[in-house]
Automatic annotation (TrEMBL), chain C:
Pfam families per UniProt: PaaB
InterPro entries: PaaB (IPR009359), PaaB_sf (IPR038693)
Protein name: 1,2-phenylacetyl-CoA epoxidase subunit B
Length: 325, 282, 94
């Protein structure tokens, strides 16, 4: 997902405290920043929320790539508002992470140094206007699938950020579907672009949920802590089942010859994405990793004088005010 | 079997609708009141469109998240205003062109924005200074347009004026803050002012179209806005400790469709899809 | 120099005259800019008519260990809650 393969940290604290903490979580209580929490819980959350925040921010880039080329004024406004929302999501999530005792600047530096990751999906390029539809429909669709249950996550600030985000997300997937629908119902060239977008984004979207975590110790711990609600496979299955009929309605073909309805399980059987590709993308070898990092690094470095200048002015104003008193 | 009534009617109805929209009608005659008004409205709309486009280029690249979101708001306001002005321009022209047709299917010489708004973004200081110089003209312009003899213009100006009141408050304040901030931020703001000052004056230079529009009470005379503009920028520069350049030399031509080299690249980017796939609906 | 902008807590009063509600936080160099950022970040969908910002560092929060003594007394003052009262149907909505 936006937070893929988050390793949960081991914890070696007072067993009594740990048991009491777990009891609170099991009782459905929210953990708040000033409450006692295991070190592992705190560190895992920083990693997960941070990765989620980074994904929103880096996720601005592939869609932002088409803002200046949007084909109508209305589409331009919709896309701009959508990408702006993603910046807002990043902001809410950084704030949630900050309640755990790490600053946004620290998180940013860790992103830029490569110490922290962001979702693999944003290392794929947007090559045609139909890709903007595919991103909203598939990528936001997959993200929503993960974010809706996270509204019930155990950490209060994270849960509240997710509630706000989910409210705003509702239009993202719909505008994407509406866009790609126009393409699928349009001229032969538009239809070809729509199919090509689906072909390229299908497997990377499935990868968003992360590799199967059936036997992962990490996800067992995270699920006990309710910072992970469903398994990767559950969500992936749900996503496929939801998306196949939507593609059929568009007259588009999911690029999977093994895709088949399985009556027994009440869901589709489908092909696994190429997990080698996934690990390569995480390692930095996706088509756009270098470009994405370069863009974020440039924005951060080029913006330094602005951030410093505004801070300096605020400080001067304060001392001027003090001097005048 | 005789064709049904609707079969008979359909081709005529389509042709009638097209004719009603004015498709295929001859272009407006230069110097006619309709042409003057159309030109004036595209000047307003094109300024918003081109500046909105430039500001939108920042999305995902701003110095800090809060600023990224603020810039997107500005761009969204400007694109919204574009739809109103160009929509009205198309209506006045009466040849079936809507705001999108005007935005995406005209070539450079038919765009009437001032040169200032097509200047490349440069660093954040240049983007901000460009915005401030524009807002300092835009705000009094809209205020004056609220008194237009054409109700449609007055209504758009009133709506846009509320948004622009926020724009000028924001850009003026940021110019002051960064002019004051650090040595580096001050130097960059001064450099931005010097780079852009020569493009601030075009908006106040009247041509024959402006003069006729002013005489008709449709739009204010450009030079009538200069005093307010000077007052605003002088006050802000003083507070920001920025030195106003001595020469008021003004580059011009944009309002008449003679643009800088940057314009063609901007349009290539912006109009690409509509030009490459003219039959497509989006 | 490179020092991070301080964090602010944002409170917004919505259209319907309810109390200011905490909606989230953001970074800004000073109060004025915090208000402006709050407008841009937290009222993009017309959510508010009035904004308060408070430096996060200025918020004093109750310690979790005080949760008992601080909040339990209110728990038995059920009369503060409207549902405590049985209003006869004939009286109508109250
Ligand atoms: Fe998002
Ligand atoms: Fe989204
Ligand atoms: Fe997203």
């Amino acid at each position: 997902m936006y937070a893929q393969m988050v390793k949960s940290e081991a914890t070696d604290e007072d067993p009594a405290k740990l048991a009491a903490f777990q009891a609170r979580i099991d009782a459905g209580e929210r953990i708040e920043p000033k409450d006692w929490m295991p070190e592992g819980y705190r560190k895992t959350l920083i990693r997960q929320i941070g990765q989620h925040a980074h994904s929103e921010i880096v996720g601005q880039l592939p869609e932002g790539n088409w803002i200046t080329r949007a084909p109508t004024l209305e589409r331009k406004a919709i896309l701009l508002a959508k990408v702006q929302d993603e910046a807002g999501h990043g902001l809410y999530l950084y704030c949630a992470a900050e309640t755990l005792g790490i600053s946004r600047d620290e998180l940013t530096e860790q992103l830029l140094s490569g110490k922290m990751k962001y979702s693999s999906i944003f290392n794929y390029p947007t090559l045609s206007w139909a890709d903007i539809g595919a991103v909203g429909w598939l990528v936001d669709g997959a993200a929503i699938m993960n974010q809706v249950p996270l509204q019930r996550t155990s950490f209060g600030p994270y849960s509240r950020a997710m509630i706000r985000i989910c409210k705003e997300e509702s239009f993202h997937q719909r505008q994407g579907y509406d866009l790609i629908r126009k393409m699928a119902e349009g001229t032969p060239e538009q239809k070809a672009m729509a199919q090509d977008a689906l072909n390229r984004f299908w497997y990377p979207s499935l990868m968003m949920f992360g590799p199967s975590d059936k036997d992962s110790v990490h996800s067992t711990q995270s699920m006990a802590w309710k910072i992970k609600i469903n398994t990767n496979d559950e969500l992936r299955q749900k996503f496929v089942d939801q998306t196949v009929p939507q593609a059929e309605f568009l007259g588009l073909t999911i690029p999977d010859e093994h895709l088949k309805w399985n009556e027994d399980k009440g869901g589709y059987d489908f092909s696994e994405p190429d997990w080698n590709e996934f690990y390569e993308v995480l390692k930095g070898n996706g088509p756009c990793n270098a470009d994405r990092m370069e863009a974020r690094t440039r924005a951060w470095r080029d913006g330094e004088w602005v951030r410093d200048g505004l801070m300096a002015h605020a400080r001067k104003q304060t001392s001027r005010r003090v001097a005048a008193e | 079997m005789a064709p049904s009534l609707s079969d008979v009617m359909t081709p005529d109805a389509a042709a009638l609708a097209a004719a009603q929209k004015g498709e295929g009608r001859a272009p407006l005659k230069a110097g006619s009141p309709e042409h003057d008004l159309f030109t004036g409205l595209t000047r307003l709309g094109d300024n918003c469109l081109i500046l909105g486009h430039r500001v939108s280029e920042w999305c995902g690249h701003a110095p800090v998240l809060e600023e990224d979101i603020a810039l997107a708001n500005m761009a969204l306001d400007l694109i919204g205003q574009t739809q109103l002005w160009l929509g009205l321009a198309g209506e006045v022209e009466g040849r079936g062109r809507d705001a999108d047709a005007l935005a995406f299917r005209r070539d450079g010489w038919d765009f009437h924005n001032i040169l200032l708004v097509e200047r490349p973004n440069g660093d954040f200081g240049q983007t901000l200074m460009r915005q401030f110089l524009f807002d300092a003209w835009h705000a009094p312009m809209l205020k004056a347009l609220e008194g237009s003899s054409d109700d449609r213009i007055a209504a758009i100006a009133q709506k846009a004026g509320k948004e622009v009141a926020y724009h000028i408050e924001r850009s003026a304040d940021l110019v002051i803050r960064l002019g004051d901030g650090t040595e580096e931020s001050h130097a960059r703001m001064q450099a931005a002012l010097e780079a852009l000052w020569g493009y601030a004056g075009e908006a106040f230079i009247a041509d024959a179209v402006d003069t006729r529009l002013a005489e008709a009470g449709l739009m204010p005379a450009p030079e009538s806005l200069r005093a307010t503009f000077d007052e605003t920028v002088n006050a802000v520069f003083a507070e920001a400790a920025l030195t106003r350049p001595e020469s008021d030399f003004a580059h011009k031509g944009g309002k008449q469709g003679r643009h800088s080299e940057h314009m063609g690249h901007l349009l290539t980017d912006m109009q690409w899809l509509q030009r490459a796939y003219p039959d497509a609906k989006w | 120099m490179s020092s991070e902008w301080p964090l602010w807590e944002v409170f917004i009063r919505g259209q319907h005259g309810l109390n200011h509600r905490h909606v989230g936080s953001l970074h800004a160099p000073d109060a004025e800019l915090a208000i402006r950022h709050a407008r841009d970040v937290y009222t993009r969908r017309n959510e508010g008519v009035s904004i308060w910002v408070v430096p996060s560092a200025q918020i004093t929060a109750s310690a979790p260990s005080e949760k008992g003594p601080l909040f339990e007394p209110a728990n038995d003052k059920v009369y503060r809650h409207p549902t405590f009262y049985d209003i006869p149907d004939e009286v109508g909505h109250m």
